[in-house]
Design goal:
By secondary structure, the protein is of the alpha/beta class. The protein is 33% helix and 11% strand. It contains eight helices and seven strands, in the order E-H-H-E-H-E-H-E-H-E-H-H-E-E-H. Helix 3 crosses helix 6. The structure holds zinc ion. The site of zinc ion has 8 residues, from loops.
Length: 199
């Protein structure tokens, strides 16, 4: 289990086994899950200090870039070019570079940071969680059909209720396991009454 993906039960097959699954025709042509995208969906650019917040935002379906290698000027330019709300804890950056659309994040805790973003931008909850890869920010596939599910998922989770999805960007698989339930419970504690019921 990669250290960078602690939120959700994310499976990544071994380096040797994975390419075959990744190129599996069963998943290669699945349509996107179409998470929160389009004219009105918010898009974010997070600074390097906000990696965990970025993952929570992606889990909620919002397109959130994070590139720790970008210097401040490039981060601001890229956010503006791509019409993203810049999320930062850096007062100096805000004072010196004056980004067009930015939110200064006040908290240390990632879930409190998320609650701040949701409240200050008055964001509506997504119809469904886990439609975007928390690791690489790619929109996940539509739910895997039974054949692909049987071929790709570990035997002990194939029968779990809820959709399983594939990330066409990095190849990870997502399903509604115990990690996903814990993540949902954490969101419900951070944002009481905000989430929609699970489909
Ligand atoms: Zn991915």
């Amino acid at each position: 289990m990669p250290k960078c993906a602690p939120w959700l039960l994310v499976a990544r097959a071994s380096a040797r086994a994975w390419p075959a699954a990744h190129e599996n025709p069963a998943v290669a042509c699945l349509p996107s899950a179409a998470p929160a995208t389009g004219e009105t969906a918010p898009r974010f650019a997070a600074d390097a200090m906000l990696a965990r917040l970025a993952r929570w935002l992606r889990l909620l379906g919002w397109d959130t870039t994070l590139d720790a290698a970008l210097h401040d000027g490039k981060l601001v330019r890229q956010a503006e070019q791509e019409d993203r709300v810049l999320l930062t804890r850096d007062r100096h950056l805000l004072r010196e570079l004056r980004p067009h659309r930015a939110l200064r994040i006040e908290h240390d805790d990632p879930l409190q940071q998320l609650a701040q973003v949701v409240r200050q931008l008055a964001l509506a909850p997504p119809a469904e969680l886990f439609t975007r890869c928390t690791v690489c920010n790619t929109a996940l596939s539509a739910p895997l059909p039974p054949q692909a599910r049987a071929a790709l998922l570990p035997a002990d989770v194939r029968e779990l209720p809820g959709p399983a999805r594939h990330c066409p960007g990095c190849g990870r698989l997502y399903w509604r396991g115990s990690h996903a339930r814990r993540m949902r419970a954490a969101l419900e504690r951070a944002l009481p009454g905000w989430l929609r019921r699970e489909p």
